Amino acid sequence: MNTKIHEIIEKRKEQIEFRTDRTQANFGSPQLTQAPVIYELSEKTQAVAHGGLALIHQIVLRTGLYDALNSVPVLKVHLPYNEADHLLNIAYNFLCGGTALEHIEYRRQDPTHLDMLGAHSIPDPTTAGDFCRRYSATQIDALQDAINETRLNVWSLQGKSFFDEAVVDMDGTIAPTSGQCKQGMDISYKGQWGYHPLIVSLAKTKEILYTFNRSGNRPSHEGAHRYIDKSIALLKRAGFKKIRFRGDSDFSQTEHLDRWDDEGVFFTFGIDAMPNLVDIAESLENKAWERLRRPAKYEVKTTPRGRRENVKDRIVEEREFLKLELHHEDVAEVEYRPGKCKRPYRLVILRKTITVKKGQRLLLPETRYFFYLTNDRDKTAAEIVFDANDRCDQENLNAELKSGMNALRMPLDNLQSNWVYLVAACLAWTLKSWTGLILPTDGRKPKDVATKKRLLGMEFRTFLQAMVMVPAQVLQSGRRIIVRLLNVNGWTETFFRLHEALRRPQRE
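The structure assignment produced for this chain is given below.
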C-alpha cells in the first residue's frame, strides 16, 4: 500500500475515533439534529455507491474467468454483447445489491456504472432473460465446468495446507414460486409450488461447485451422484490429498458407495431410521454405548451475566403444553452392509434421550435414533457425529442464497432458464469467495490469516457493505479508469491490499 493512501486511511481513522469517543464534551447533547438540507445535482462529478465492483471485475479479468464464460458459445451473433457480458451482467446485479432481474435496469441507466466497467452499454432485463433461455442442459453443465477451470487457477494460489483435505457438502432446497405458467415447476414435499435445485459446495471456502435445477417434486438425491463424480474429478485435478463428502439421509447413494470407496473417496451420509436399523440399535448391549459430550461452541471470556427469565418456558408450563428437552446423547457403532453394497461400512448410531414434560408433570422419556454411514476408519464415532452435524453449515449457505441474495427467486419461465439464472447468481457468490482466496497472506501474520478467514465466512450482505458498497468517484484519464473511493471503512486497508495484489504481474 503506497504511503499517500496509508496516510489518508490513518487520518480518517483518527476522525472516526474522535467522533466515537464518549469522553467528548458534545457527546451528551442530542445527536440527530441538523441544519436545513438543500439537495443539488452535480453537473460534472460522477459517482457510484458500489465502487468496489471495479475490483471484482479485475478479479474476473485476471483469473481468466471472462474468457472461460465465453468458451461455451450459445449466441450466433456477438455484437454488441458476448456470453460473458450477459452472465456477468446478472452476477454484478447481485453484487450491486440488486435482488431482482428488473434491478439490472438501474445499472443500465447509470452512466457512471458503465464507465467504471469500461462499457458503452449493458443488456436490459428482458434481453438478459432471453439470453438465459438459450442454454441447453448440456451447455449449462459445460458452463459450470468452464467456471471450475478458472477455480483451479484460484486454488493454485493457495498454500500447501489448503490441499490437505476437501470436504464437500450437498443439499437440496426448495425454491418456491408464485407463477402459474412456469414450465418444470411442481408441488414439493412441503406442499409448495416451485423448483428443487441441488447445491454442491466446498465446506472450507463455501464455494458453490455445482448446481442442478430440478422440478419441485423430485427427490433430493436425484442426479446427485453425477455431480459428486464431477466434483471428485475436479478436486483430484486440483491436488487435494483427501476428499470427503457429506450429506443427509436423502443422499446415501448406496449404489455408488463401493465405487467411491474404491476410488479412495471418503463419505459420511445420514440414513433414514428404517425399522431394521432401529432394531439393530435397540438390540445393542449397554456397554456398546458411550456418552456423547459435545465441546463448547465458544469460550466465555467475560463475567457471566445473570440469566433472565425464560418467557417461553413459563408460558409452556402454565398452559401445560408438551415440552421436549434433550437430556443426554450416546453413540455406538456396528458394521452394516446396505443392500446395494458388496461390502460393509461403519454404521454410527446416535441415541438421543429426550425428557417430556406436560406442565410440571414429568412423562415417560422418548428415545430417538440417528444413523450415519461412513467409510472413514480413523475418526471416532463421536467425531463422525460432530462432522456430520457440521454439514448444517450447508443449510446456512442455502439460506444465504434464498434470503441474503434472493438468488432462488426463479424469475424466468422454465426450468433450464432459471437454472442458468441460478448459475449466474452462484457466480456472484463465487466471486465473493475468490476475493478472500486471492487476498495475499504469507501465512505467518495471524492478522492477515484471520482477515482472509473472515472474508471467506462473511454473509453476502456483510461482504457487500465491507468491500463493494463503497461510494466512489469514477474518472477517465487516457486509457485508464480511475475509481476514487470517497469513504473509509474498517476494510479499506484490506481493499487496497487486494488491489495491489491484482496489479502485480501474473505468475507464469
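Interim note for the steering committee: The CA atoms of residues 4 and 234 lie 43 Å apart. The chain has a mean pLDDT of 90.
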